[in-house]
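JOB MANIFEST
job_type = single_chain_structure
chain_count = 1
residues = 246
[input]
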Amino acid sequence: MDVVELLPGRLLMLRFPVGQAYLWRDGGGGRPDELTLVDAGPAGSGAPIVEAVTALGARPADVRRVVLTHFHEDHAGGAAEVAALTGAEVLAHRLDAPHVRDDAPGPPPALEDWELPLRRRALSLLPPGDYERPASVTELSDGDVLDVAGGAQVLHVPGHTRGSIALRLPRYGVLFTGDTVAVSPADGTVIPGVFNLDRHRLLASCRRLAALDTETACFGHGDPVLADASRRLRAMADAAQRETDR
């Protein structure tokens, strides 16, 4: 796992063989640390994540919550491990929470032909077999506000999965998009996410995110945009709309 500091003293990116998670740090200035993990990587990520926490000078118990953007294994596979090692609360949208807990199987994506080899490649990089599921998942809804970064807004952005969410930190101009938005590995272009359940709904969710005032955009896959992210998100949404209109 690679660790990259994005905002000094506040935000780290934790990069795995498939995808990435983010660690947000509240506290400082004499206040105790309180850490929030956005996504948890695939199975086996728990111990490396805790190592990154201790390297910050924080304690595992300072990780108060794990916010999952959706139920897919590369984002939720490490959630139970992190919760067991830290005592953190696991949160997910109410439509994806049953799949995170394994109460019900998650619906597979509706893959386009060009996505098939990419999907096979991604799956080959994930640990084989089943993985531990969190015993308890707090369910979120659109409009919920979490006690993170002075008020973190939960945005329901369906399309990649039924219960995909983005997490917005308005005070800091930071947006975690999950897999609703991604970055092309070919040229670094910001693009709508792939491997979706419903691409039409995904594009509507992309437009919602593009309308926000965002300085820093953090994606489930691909390098974050650290400045003027709104412009890049609007360009993505406009390009997707032109393609749809053709």
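[summary]
The radius of gyration is 17 Å.
Helices lie at 46-55, 73-76, 79-86, 97-101, 116-124, 199-210, 229-245.
exit_status = 0
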